[in-house]
Design goal:
Helices cover 71% and strands 2% of the residues. The chain is mainly α and 257 residues long. The protein has a two-stranded antiparallel sheet. The longest helix has 37 residues. The protein is elongated, with a radius of gyration of 28 Å.
């Protein structure tokens, strides 16, 4: 009588299935991205403008592209007006702060930062004034949209011109630097009493000032982090069909006029 077949037992070692873990960035990659954000924040705030200009370049329909360029030029002129007004306010604030009694006995860096911020705010105003006139001159021409587009794009190829974008964002950059310079001087003037003088009411003011400084600086860093880590990469990944400017959908698949 034949013996029943014995069940075969697998000798291959079984491994437990591990839960999926999202790959994490290395410390080098994380540091590189943080430095990238710092670079965008401090030296190249025209990166977002780069995306808008690239979308305008990629539009195939000339009529739609000209309309969007003129709307964009109108928005830029309004931006220059706001920047000029903000620069005037900053210059007034710095001038008033220089006249404070405490500034005469403050560290020399305080007045140096304030004088530098005052100078940058004044240059911000006059450069914004000239750029506003330039854009108004372009938009007054019948071919102004095409001429303006040629300013912000490279001569060879369909890419935004770094020089053109940089020039258009100079007023905003100078305004940002002047505000940062003023804040730096203010922080030093308020905080230096903690290590320079004996304990006094000014020391209490400096300690009370710290939470405001942490909250303001932390909020600024968080906003910059979201803009240059989350929002900007998301915009760069979007195709032109999903791009939006001034409430209008940009259609790249239209036939060239």
């Amino acid at each position: 009588m034949a013996k029943p077949a014995q069940p075969q037992v697998s000798t291959t070692p079984q491994t437990e299935s591990l839960p999926y873990r999202k790959p994490t960035e290395s410390k080098t990659e994380l540091l590189s991205r943080l430095l990238h954000i710092a670079q965008y924040t401090t030296t190249t705030p025209w990166q977002i403008l780069n995306i808008a200009v690239q979308q305008m370049i990629d539009i195939h329909n000339n009529t739609e592209r000209n309309d969007i360029i003129l709307q964009w030029a109108k928005d830029k002129r309004a931006e220059f007006k706001h920047v000029s007004l903000a620069g005037t306010i900053v210059a007034s604030a710095v001038t008033g702060s220089i006249q404070w009694q405490q500034s005469s006995s403050a560290h020399w860096i305080v007045l140096a930062a304030w004088y530098g911020g005052l100078l940058l705010s004044l240059f911000c105003i006059i450069i914004a004034f000239h750029l506003s006139i330039l854009i108004a001159t372009y938009t007054a021409r019948s071919d102004g949209a095409q001429k303006l587009l040629s300013v912000v794009k490279t001569k060879k190829g369909n890419k935004p011109s770094i020089t053109g974008l940089y020039i258009l964002q100079v007023p905003m950059m100078l305004l940002s630097y002047s505000i940062i310079s003023y804040i730096m001087g203010l922080i030093i003037m308020v905080m230096e009493v903690l290590w320079r003088d004996a304990w006094s009411d000014n020391s209490k003011i400096a300690l009370f000032f710290v939470p405001y400084l942490i909250f303001g600086l932390g909020t600024y860093v968080a906003v910059c982090f979201m803009i240059y880590w989350k929002f900007l990469p998301d915009m760069e990944e979007k195709t032109i069909n999903g791009g939006l400017y001034a409430g209008r959908t940009m259609r790249a698949d239209d036939d060239a006029a």
